[in-house]
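Appendix C reproduces, verbatim, an entry submitted by the partner laboratory led by Prof. M.T., so that reviewers can inspect both the input and the predicted structure.
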Amino acid sequence: MNQSIKPGDNPDLTDERLSGTFDTNAMAAVIYGSDKLAQRRREISEAVSRIPELKDSKPYPFMTREEKILEGSRKSAVLNRLLPGLIDLESFEETVFIHQEVIGIEGYPLALHESLFIPPIATQGTDEQQEKWLMRAQRREIIGCYAQTELGHGSNLRALETTATFDISTREFILNSPTITSLKWWPGALGKSANWSIVIANLIIKEHNYGPHPFMVQLRDEKSHEPLPGITVGDIGPKMAFNGADNGFLGFKNYRIPRENMLMRHSKVTSDGSYIKPPHAKIGYSSMVKVRSRMAAEQGLFLAHALTIAVRYSAVRRQGFLKDKSREVKVLDYQTQLHRLFPSIARAYAFIFCGFETIRLYDQLLIDVQNGNTSGMADLHALTSGLKSVVTYQTGEGIEQARMACGGHGYSMASYISEIYGVAIGGCTYEGENMVMLLQLARYLVKSIEMIQNGKSRELGPMVAYLAEKESEIDLNLGPNEYLKVFEYAARNQTWRATEKFQKLRNSGMSNEKAWNQASVELTRASRLHTRLYIMSTFINHVGSIVDQKVKGVLIDLLNVHVTYEVMDIGIYVQGLLSSNQMDLIRNQLYVSLETIRPNAVSLVDSFQISDMQLRSQVICAFLAAWDDFQTKHCIMVQRTRFKTYILQQISFNKIKFEESYELRYLAILVAVSLRVPYVNDLCMDPRKFKTRQMLYHFVLGRRDGNVYENLFKWAKSSPLNQTDVLPSVTQYLKPMMDKSKL
C-alpha cells in the first residue's frame, strides 16, 4: 500500500509503512488534485535525479550567501536549457514543482519571476503590452521582479511614496523616490539579478494623485546589466532565511519611462493626460489576491515538509520504556508526541485542500472579471486576507512543534527544519502583515453585520450567511458537521460582539479610526474564527467528495482529529454553548482519534511524496577513490582530450551538454556516472585537486530510508571545520592564550 518501501530501509520505518491501510499514490492524487499531477511530480523527481548538473554542489549550510546565490543561478540556467524536455511549459504547477525539487526553498534569483512578475503582465497588461513583454519574460530573455513594498511602508498601500508623474509634453512618466522611506525595499531578485520590474507607484496627473498603479520599468542595461541612469539599486543584506535570493532596494531620480509602460488593461492614461478609472476599485489588487490564494496550499506544503521529517524521525528514534522493558519505545508511541504532531498533519491537509479551493475561486474570478462581473472581488479579497494570516501563523506554530518533536537533533541544521521555519514564517509578513490582513477581513465582517442590522440578510454572500442564522441544537455524536456548527456559533458570537463594541465606541463620540483601534483586538479574534471556520468547512466538504473508500476512511479519521482539536482550542468562545460534559466528550474523542490515526502516521506524510532531494536528504559524494579506481581499471591517463573522448564513447549524455569551458567541472561527474557511484560533490572542483576522500551529506533526519544515525555522523564529519584537526582560531588565539597561562 505504501509506495515508499524499498530494500535496505530502516526496519522500524518499514514496519510503520506496512501498517498503513491505504495506497499512498492514491492519497497523493487527492492531495494534489489529480492522479495526473501526482504522477507527473513523481516522474519529474525521477528525471531530475538522473541529471548530475541539477544536484547541489555541496550542502547549503556549508555555503556562503554568495555561493547560495551562485548555486541558484547556475541551476536556473541549467533548468532553462533542460525544461522543454522535462516538463510541460504550459503547466504552472509543473514549473513550480521542478524548481522546488531542484533548487529547494532557500530562494534563487528567479524565485518570484514566475509568480509575481509575469502574472501582472498577463492580467493587467493590454494585448499590445503582453505582445511586447510577456513572451520575453516567459522565455527568461528578461528577468523581472515586483517592487511594491517600501522602506517606510508595506501593508498600507495608500501611504506608498514612490511617484510616477505624467509629463503631457513628452507623454512620459517621471519616476521619483522623494524620501529615504520611499525606497523600494524587499523585492526578491531586485538586488542583483532582475533587469526589469513591475513598480507600484502613485500616479500623478496635473498634480492630482490617483493612487498606486503598476508600471513596467527597465532597471538595468540588457547587455551590460549595469543600472540605468536615474536608478539606485542593490541588495538589502542577509535575512533570517531565504538567503539564496537577492532581495533588494530601489530608488528613482527623475527616471523617465514611456506612457505605454503603465499597465493599462483596467486603468488607463490617454496621451492628453485623461485618466480612465478601472471598473472595480480593488481590481488592481488582483496580483496580490492571486499570491494570497496560493499561499494556503504553499504554506500547507511547508508544514508537510517539517512534519515528514519529524514523523519519520519519530518512527526510528527510540527513547524510554512503556510495557516492554527489553527494548526502548519509539517516541512516536508517546501520546504527547501524537498530540504534538497529528493535529498539525490534519492542518497541513486542511490548508492544502483549502488552498486549492481558493485557487479555484480565484480562477473563476478572473473569468468573471473578463466578462465584466467584479462582484466577487471584495469577497475573495477578504477571504484571502484572513487565510493568509491564519494559515501562515499556524504553519509557523506547527513547524516549530515539529522541530521540538525531534529533540536535540531538531536544533541541528541536519534536520533542515530551522530553514523551513525561517522561510515559511516570512509569510506572516510578506504580501500583507498578518494583523493588517485580519483587520481587512474584519471590515468585511462588520459590513456584513451592518447589512443584517439593516434588514439586508438576503444580500449576504454565502461565506457570511451564517452570521444571520439562529443557534441550533448540537449533537456531537452526529459527526464533523456538528463540530462545524460549534465553530459557526463561536465565529458568529465573536463577530457580533466585536462589531457592537466598535459601534458603541463610535456612537459615544469617538472618531471612527480611534473606535476601530479600540476594538481591533476583538475584531482580529472574529477574523481568525471566521477563517478557521472556512478552513474546517472546506476540509469537511473535500473529504466528503472523495471516491476512494480507503483514502476517504483515513481522511475521515484525520478530519476527526482536526475538528476535535480545533474545537478544544477555541473552548473559551463556546462556553455558552457546550457543557463541561460535552467538552470532556470532545477531549476524550480527540485522544481516541490520535490513536486511530497512529498506524497511518508515516503513510500520511509519505503521501506528500516530498523527495529526499526536496528535503535535502540525498547523498552527494566526493570520491577521490572513484577517480583512482577509474584510472586503475581503465589505464587512462589524466589528459582532458583523451578522457573526454573515452567518456563520449562510454556513456550517454542524455540532456547534459558537454561544454569545453566546463570540462573540469564535469570530469568528476562523468567518472561517477560511468562507474555508477553516487554523484560527486562540488561541480566546480577538479577531482585531481581533492585532498580528502570525503563524503558530503545533506540534511538527514527526514531521509526516506530512515537510516538516520550513520548518515548524521557522516554529515557531521563532512563539516568544513573537520577538514583539519587544528583550526587557525586555535593556533592564532587559543593556543597562545593557553601557553601564556601555564605556570
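Residues 335-370 form the longest helix (36 residues). Additional entries are available on request from the coordinating office.
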